Amino acid sequence: MGFLEKAAELATRLLTIDVELKNVRNEMAANQNQINAFDPKFDRLTQQLNELQSRVARLEAQRDADRAQMATEIERFKIEVERAELHLQRQLPPSRENE
To answer: What 3 state SS string does the chain have?
Structure first.
């Protein structure tokens, strides 16, 4: 095989490699475009997730506060019922069970 044949073969290989490199570059550019398109969507989804987590935390805190308030109201109601019972007992005539 002579010098010209080797040079022609190398040139053909280089052209083939050049085409393959162009294809790889095009695929990489397409992939980068897809990544760039997903970045804002990912950022938006991350922001929405953070907002949901904050909302859940606020709702849980409000629920706990509501439960504590309800427990306080129930205790106040029980005290009022006890006072009302004592008041009624004082107003009723004494029972004759001891006679």
So the answer is: CCHHHHHHHHHHHHHHHHHHHHHHHHHHHHHHHHHHHHHHHHHHHHHHHHHHHHHHHHHHHHHHHHHHHHHHHHHHHHHHHHHHHHHHHHHCCCCCCCC
Amino acid sitting at position 81? V
Low-confidence residues of the chain, pLDDT below 50?
A: none
Query: Does the predicted model carry a pTM greater than 0.85?
Result: no
Number of domains in the chain: 1
Structural domain span for residue 51: 1-64
Would 87 be classed as within a structural domain?
no
